[in-house]
Amino acid sequence: MGQTTLKRFKAKEIIFNAGDEGDCAYIIDSGRVQIFIEKLGLEIPVNVLGVGEIFGEMAILDRSPRSASARALNEVQVSVVSRTQFEQRIEQADPIVKLLVSILLKRLRSNLGGGINAIAGQSSILVGGEGGSLEAKQNGDAQEGDHPDVKESHNQVIEKIKFEAELHEALKNDHFLLYYQPIVDLHTGRVAGFESLIRWKSDTRGMVRPDLFIGVAEETSLIVPIGKWVLRESFKALAAFNESLTKAGVSESKKADSLFMTINISGKQFLDPQFFSDVLALPEEFAINPKRVKMEITEKIFLSGNLSFFWLEKLRSMGFPISLDDFGTGYSMLSYLSQFNFDSLKIDQSFIRKIHTDDKTRIVVSAIVGLAKGLNIEIIAEGVEYQEQVDILKEMGCHLVQGYFYGKPMPFTEALSLINK
Ligand code: C2E
Ligand code: CMP
Ligand code: CA
Ligand code: CA
């Protein structure tokens, strides 16, 4: 961490000149500071700053020379803040924010004028982090002659901004759809439920898989409206599946124990103050027992803090079973198991993939199944593709399986005809 030191300047003393190298910013503790530029030998005042204001931040943001000169107008005391103090924060900042800041700085520099700006940015910390010099570009566009890494990182950020805009449009224009992947009961051999999995039908990109956009949606909080849509759509589908079973002669009493729906929930959705009231309204609206709707989360949800336990417990108290996805891939799975009462565990596909070819994997899965049984937690094996895997899982006493062997995620109508078979 950088240190803060005090510095004093007499009236009219120059604090720094335009074009100087700058590796610190200043906060004015007392007095007033004039910012000025020189053009054609004339001094042009740009601003006068007072107590509590900061200056000299531009050079530390983009590692460019001072964009203007600074002079004490009277007796001035400043706190000097070193670049390192900011550097760590800037490096950790969102790449899009970094890009926008760099564009802003570029514009400000070009408005201030002067040759100083053309030599800006030898090793930016704003974009790319490793020697990028995005601010050396006019108006934020990648320029001829830029280092290839800089162009690359600039283009990536621009691409991401466009991608986010497309996601917003997709939500507005109803371009998301839900697919349903069957989950099969190994005791009965019948479909016991479905996991709803989102798809984005893009005009330009075709059918986009969720792992390509869910992460971005989580970063921008777009996951909140998307997740809301997923919840409602999943309830709607489950209600339709139930209705079709009723028509096919499955009695009302059996219906309550019939299909379930597993819905993927992202931790960010908990930040939406409306989330719980929305969720609470759904079982009544669609006449669905909350016990038939498993809320599936991953370990990631706990990384944002202990509050997640509170919200999960709240969901559980509403009657929704909580399922822990991708079990076995995280860092602290066992500790979460002892801290929270999960209803289901989903063994990650990476284990199931090797269960029939690798002895060690088989032992690990068998131990997980045993652990879950001991804790009275339901086990779901995901990624089942071969009969051999089914046989092994059955023998281990695994109850529920999901995978291409039984069916890929499919559109609503296909899922409907599957349950009617
Ligand atoms: P997930 O929740 O672990 O979902 C299982 C993924 O494994 C699905 O990919 C599914 O198609 C795939 N899969 C299932 N069985 C097999 C198999 O036998 N072989 C292979 N190779 N793959 C199999 P998908 O649909 O592409 O979803 C990817 C991830 O995106 C999901 O992983 C989940 O984390 C996320 N996701 C999907 N829909 C939603 C959603 O509505 N909300 C949120 N927050 N995340 C979602
Ligand atoms: P930096 O470029 O490091 O050095 C000159 C400083 O003057 C600059 O950072 C800003 O802190 C400040 N500065 C530049 N332009 C203006 C402006 N238009 N108004 C106020 N302060 C400015
Ligand atoms: Ca899942
Ligand atoms: Ca999974």
Total strands: 17
Strand content: 15-25%
Mean pLDDT metric: 87
Bound ligands: ligand C2E, adenosine-3',5'-cyclic-monophosphate, calcium ion
Description:
The structure is a single chain. The chain is of the alpha/beta class and 421 residues long. Helix content is 40%, strand content 23%. It contains 15 helices and 17 strands. An eight-stranded mixed beta barrel has the order 9-10-12-13-14-15-16-17, surrounded by four helices. A four-stranded antiparallel sheet has the order 1-8-3-6. Helix 14 links the parallel strand 16 and strand 17. It is elongated, with a radius of gyration of 29 Å. The protein starts with a strand and ends with a helix. Mean pLDDT is 87; it is low at 115-123 and 129-142. The chain binds ligand C2E, adenosine-3',5'-cyclic-monophosphate and calcium ion (CA) (2 copies). One calcium ion binds at residues 325-326, 346, 348, 382. Adenosine-3',5'-cyclic-monophosphate binds next to strand 5 and helix 1.
Write the layout of secondary structure elements.
Layout: E1 4-9, E2 14-16, E3 24-30, E4 33-39, E5 42-49, E6 54-55, H1 57-62, E7 69-72, E8 76-82, H2 83-92, H3 95-112, H4 148-172, E9 176-185, E10 191-202, E11 206-208, H5 214-220, H6 223-247, H7 252-255, E12 260-264, H8 275-286, E13 293-297, H9 300-303, H10 307-317, E14 322-327, H11 333-339, E15 344-347, H12 349-354, H13 359-374, E16 378-382, H14 387-396, E17 400-402, H15 412-420
Parallel strand pairs: 10-12, 12-13, 13-14, 14-15, 15-16, 16-17
Antiparallel strand pairs: 1-8, 2-7, 3-6, 3-8, 4-5, 4-7, 9-10, 9-17, 10-11
Helix pairs in contact: 6-8, 6-15
Bound molecules: ligand C2E, adenosine-3',5'-cyclic-monophosphate and calcium ion (CA) (2 copies).
Ligand C2E binds at residues 181, 197-198, 209-211, 214, 227, 230, 264, 266, 325-326, 349, 382-385, 402-404, 409.
